[in-house]
Amino acid sequence: MTLLRGRGYASVNYPTGMNLGGDPSQAIIHATTMGGFVVTLSSVDLGQGLKTVVAQCAAETLGIPMENVIIDTADTDTGPHCMGTFASRGTHRVGNAVIMAAREAREVMLQVAADELEVDAGDLETDGTGFVRLKGSPATKIHISDIALAAHFKQGKSISGRGIFLKERSYPVPETGEMDPDSCQAHACTVAEVEVDDETGIVTVLRMYNTYEIGRALNPAMVAQQVEGGAWMGVSHAIFESTEPYYPASRAHGPIDFCEYLMPGPAEIPVQTSVILERPASNGPFGAKGIGEMTANAPIPAIANAIFDACGVRLTTMPFTPESVLRGLDALRAA
Amino acid sequence: MTVTIVNLKVNGVDQAFMARPGTTLLLALREQLGLTGAKRGCAQGACGSCTVLLDGAPVVSCLVPATTVDGADIATVEGLADGQQLSDVQQAFLDGFATQCGFCTPGMLMSAEALLARNPDPTADEVNEAISGNVCRCTGYAPIVSAILDAAERRRNRVEATH
Ligand code: FES
Ligand code: FES
């Protein structure tokens, strides 16, 4: 028995969003009487952290603390339209819509504050802690909760804003096939190190090095988590899980539950090192591109290449099972 | 079908409810006691999202018939925090970004609490083993394992500080 080490790499360019027949997301922001800013969306946070990231976008644009932002994604039936959280589009589309809505709401907020303070709105700024103050004279200030109260009960104004980001539809040019399908592209490269047991055919992924260029990382900790959680899923696709060969033709065979559908557990994860490169995208919210789906992509071919490097077996069908490794080794010996 | 009255202490509070044969502890907690922290991921003992402590031991509550645990002491994720004060394990999960969608989190927390209660200074391998019955689809496990090790250290420091 020999344990063969190998190293392989793969890279991916990944589109942020797609254009369908036009790809919009809307956001509506309004202030409550207490100075909370409700961001109403139909965009679903399925665990990727969308609510956090768009709350950051709203807080940054409004110039108020994140605690004063309330993200409401309650109901896709009645909320402002969103195409959905897929295609790594959430941060980009929804973030842009939220920034646009927040700019409009901020203008009203400053105007209400200006009327209360009897100054010009153009001379006001936010201090990020909840106050609107006069530039150069920070003692002249008013808290957003007082601004909201004045707007509701004194001035009769609605501190609110509307935002939409639309990626217009773009059909291919018939002659050239040229089209404009996405908003920007993120790039990544993964290097995988594996160990192949030439007697059992078992592949172990030892280490992965991930590099991602994703525009501005709005929330670096969540980006790192997305990268490494996605890489785990890549490892899982590469060497563990499969609904093949029966899905989707038949669900009567093959794995139907967690007992049969294998995924790597905590003891089977590689050590990961991840680096984020930030090159802000001109059309992204604060320069962000999407980072979602792409994180599971590069690890798979990187692992396939590392297996090839380790033992000369070129596998093209996932998952790379012990059986497929052993058959490949047999074929090499026979050749 | 005979309906049985089941008495439990849940997170320190005495509870009584009626259960038909076959009612699982998970169902009773969620539907009858309104404690929806424990999740129903698979209902067959394979995902760990329904993990609660039964007399201190972690169990997959989807496989425990409620009528068989009359008189037991149950701890669920709802009982971990003391008011606004999170437990060390919860705080370490929060600080260490050890959750994404959060579906596995209640089960992970309970498995971790059970581990640290019997082994205050676990190795990474022991943590892996303790959560090997808990499936997480999002995080890749690494942040969960480090959060549990971090929580162990916080707990040890706390114990030292009070001596
Ligand atoms: S719901 Fe109990 S183990 Fe999955
Ligand atoms: S955080 Fe989503 S399953 Fe663990």
From TrEMBL, chain A:
Q: Which InterPro entries match?
A: AldOxase/xan_DH_MoCoBD2, AldOxase/xan_DH_Mopterin-bd_sf, N-heterocyclic_Hydroxylase
What SUPFAM superfamilies does UniProt report for this protein, alphabetically?
Answer: Molybdenum cofactor-binding domain
* Ranges for domain Aldehyde oxidase/xanthine dehydrogenase second molybdopterin binding: 4-270
Q: Which PANTHER family is this protein grouped with?
A: ALDEHYDE DEHYDROGENASE (PTHR47495)
User: What is the designated name of this protein?
Assistant: Aldehyde oxidase
From TrEMBL, chain B:
User: Which InterPro entries does its entry note?
Assistant: 2Fe-2S-bd, 2Fe-2S-bd_dom_sf, 2Fe-2S_ferredoxin-like_sf, 2Fe-2S_ferredoxin-type, 2Fe2S_fd_BS, Beta-grasp_dom_sf, Diverse_Oxidoreductases
Which terms are listed as keywords in the entry?
2Fe-2S, Iron, Iron-sulfur, Metal-binding, Oxidoreductase
Record-linked SUPFAM superfamilies: 2Fe-2S ferredoxin-like, CO dehydrogenase ISP C-domain like
The keyword Ribosomal protein is assigned to this record: no
Q: Does the keyword Iron apply?
A: yes
Annotated 2Fe-2S ferredoxin-type domain residues: 4-80
Which Pfam families does its entry note? Fer2 (PF00111), Fer2_2 (PF01799)
* Domain of life where this protein originates: Bacteria
Q: Which Gene3D superfamilies match?
A: 3.10.20.30, [2Fe-2S]-binding domain
PANTHER family attached to this UniProt entry: OXIDOREDUCTASE WITH IRON-SULFUR SUBUNIT (PTHR44379), XANTHINE DEHYDROGENASE IRON-SULFUR-BINDING SUBUNIT XDHC-RELATED (PTHR44379:SF8)
What is this protein identified as? Answer: Ferredoxin
This chain's source organism reads Asanoa iriomotensis
